[in-house]
Specification:
It is found in: Cell membrane. By secondary structure, the protein is an all-alpha fold. The chain has a domain of 84 residues. The chain contains five helices and no strands. Helix 2 packs antiparallel against helix 3, helix 3 runs antiparallel to helix 4 and helix 3 packs antiparallel against helix 5.
């Protein structure tokens, strides 16, 4: 509910102020964002983004609440099961049915106790993976975009039909500019490797390989322990 109130406040804030402001401040170089249709496009974009963010956040909260309630009710069922285990007070011999029922309850109880740990571990790694992948992917995408735009300079010069220029100095300058454009502007990580989509796919492949190796070692160790 709080997410919906906050999202509604930000979306309706420009109408409450009575001026052509956006829910979130932004700046576009050499573009007046208060004029139509730029203002309307940016407003709809921010409103949709805010709504999606609100829905995603509420979804995570609902998932967490459902998970907690599932564990609580499982524990209630386990308590009820232990309370209903048949105990014969007039004999010292174990009842096989009661023993089987007790084993099932103990196994169920053990699974429920380990569930929060596995959920926390999965949630932590999922969030870490999404955040890490998103950040690295964003930087690599920006690097690839810069390289693409840098390479397009040579094509733009070539399409001006530079060979038809009669002025020798102008034509020589065009040729030198094309040669200079072969050295692309690029983002690097500490001058060690380029930040582009090729590097991003390499990072994902390497990470997946390490994950597969660690996972196999972990399961082999657990198998040997058992």
């Amino acid at each position: 509910m709080a997410y919906a109130v906050v999202a509604l406040f930000y979306i309706t804030n420009p109408f409450l102020l009575g001026n052509r402001t956006l829910p979130f401040e932004c700046y576009l170089f050499s573009v007046n964002i208060t004029k139509s249709p730029t203002y309307e496009i940016l407003y709809v974009y921010q409103a949709i983004g805010t709504t999606i963010g609100c829905i995603v956040s509420m979804g995570f909260d609902i998932l967490f609440v459902c998970f907690i309630w599932r564990i609580v009710w499982e524990l209630k069922f386990i308590k009820e099961g232990f309370s209903n285990v048949y105990v014969n007070l007039f004999t010292l011999e174990d009842d096989e049915d009661s023993i089987k029922e007790l084993k099932v309850l103990i196994r169920h109880h053990d699974d429920v106790l380990s569930t929060p740990y596995h959920f926390s571990l999965t949630f932590m790694y999922t969030v870490y993976l999404v955040v890490f992948t998103g950040h690295v992917g964003l930087y690599c995408f920006a690097g690839s975009y810069i390289v693409s735009e840098s390479e397009s300079v040579a094509y733009a010069i070539y399409e001006t039909n530079w060979w038809t220029k009669t002025q020798p100095n102008l034509r020589r300058g065009m040729v030198l500019s094309i040669l200079r454009s072969q050295h692309c502007a690029k983002l690097t990580a500490g001058s060690m490797f380029s930040l582009d989509l090729k590097s991003f796919t390499g990072i994902l492949k390497t990470s997946l390989s390490f994950f597969t190796v660690i996972r196999s070692v972990y399961f082999n160790r657990n198998t040997q322990t058992e």
